[in-house]
Amino acid sequence: MSTWREDLGTSNEAISLMQSIFANVSDAILVIDHEGRIVRANAALEQMTGWTEDELIREKHICELCLGMATCMEETSCTDCFFKRVQMPSFEMKLRTKDGRDYPVAASSARLPEESGGKLVMILRDMSAQQRAEKERYQHKLTHFAIQAQEEERKRIARELHDGIGQALYSILVGLNVVRQGNPGEAVMQHVTELVNMTSRAMEEVKRMALELRPSALDDLGLLPALRSLMKRVEKTFHIQVELHVQGEKRRYSAPMETALYRIVQEAMTNTAKYAQASQLGIMFENREKEVVVTIVDDGIGFEVEKTLNFGKGLGVFGMKERAQLLGGTVDIRSAPQEGTTVIVRIPLPEEGILDDDSRLDR
């Protein structure tokens, strides 16, 4: 008698434990009868689908919730449905929620023995956060390849402009000067002089385009000399006074890091020149122990940051942020109408060193 009571107590305790697990586990659990009707469901399934227990139990068929299963062998479909199987240890499926959304879940199913009613038990785990993370990782990788391809194409076109079109224009200019030295008639001399001037302007334009696409100083001399060259062009073109202050040791960084910092500063300076109506622009370059911090400040008219980004007018800003994020960094933009704009760029330095072998090869 004593043993029977102990077994009964243990059995009741086990049942209580199972009920507690069923009610409180974060994974959704549902039990389906032979006809496919949901006969049991826990709170996690209610939260996942939006339907209450009363709306699910005996009211919903599994096919009303399931939008198809997927395995490593095939995409989402209803072929060879898990409901026809005795057991499916792992597959993916999408639930249809009460408000019509598709909800991705990882699932497993097992059919109980006939003496237990032969019902099908399913366990569903929320995959939405994981899929979002995977999507972000994929987007991150895609952005990296896109920027890398863009820079390689810029470098190629800049080289062709300089070595191809630039050299051809220079040859034309030399030929025209030879003609001019031959003392042609006044009419011919005037025409040749016009052609010389046109060719000179074309050479300057080609040089400018090549510099905008990919300054050779960035690859040959490094980030700071390239920035100083950029500053001179901005001062000359837009009549803005630009100052650069450098704190810390001057050194070379990896090619991706130098390119990203150059492009971010270039975009910030271009935005200032085009929209800020600024007269002065300051750049503070800080080489710290574990990061590089670049601060760009102008005295322009400023703008409402959130409003500009929300209305899709800040595509350049998104590009700046993307480049920084690819290196684990950030871009913080602070501005307000009539208060100027401050852009703070933070890029962490790699622990293994400033300039690695791969970076040297890229140069």
Automatic annotation (TrEMBL):
Post-translational modification: Autophosphorylated.
Predominant place of localization: cytoplasm
One term of GO molecular function: ATP binding
Reactions that this protein is recorded to catalyse: ATP + protein L-histidine = ADP + protein N-phospho-L-histidine
Cofactor note: Binds 1 [4Fe-4S] cluster.
Residue stretches making up the PAC domain: 89-139
PAS domain ranges (all copies): 14-65
Keywords attached to this entry: 4Fe-4S, ATP-binding, Cytoplasm, Iron, Iron-sulfur, Kinase, Metal-binding, Nucleotide-binding, Phosphoprotein, Transferase, Two-component regulatory system
Post-translational modification Phosphohistidine, affected residues: H162
GO (cellular component) term, any one: cytoplasm
PROSITE patterns xrefs: HIS_KIN, PAC, PAS
Annotated [4Fe-4S] cluster binding sites: C63, C66, C78, C81
Positions of the Histidine kinase domain: 156-351
This enzyme's EC code(s): 2.7.13.3
Taxonomy, superkingdom: Bacteria
UniProt subcellular location: Cytoplasm
PANTHER family: NITRATE/NITRITE SENSOR PROTEIN NARX-RELATED, NITRATE_NITRITE SENSOR PROTEIN NARQ
Function of the molecule: Member of the two-component regulatory system NreB/NreC involved in the control of dissimilatory nitrate/nitrite reduction in response to oxygen. NreB functions as a direct oxygen sensor histidine kinase which is autophosphorylated, in the absence of oxygen, probably at the conserved histidine residue, and transfers its phosphate group probably to a conserved aspartate residue of NreC. NreB/NreC activates the expression of the nitrate (narGHJI) and nitrite (nir) reductase operons, as well as the putative nitrate transporter gene narT.
Name of protein: Sensor histidine kinase
Species, as recorded: Brevibacillus agri
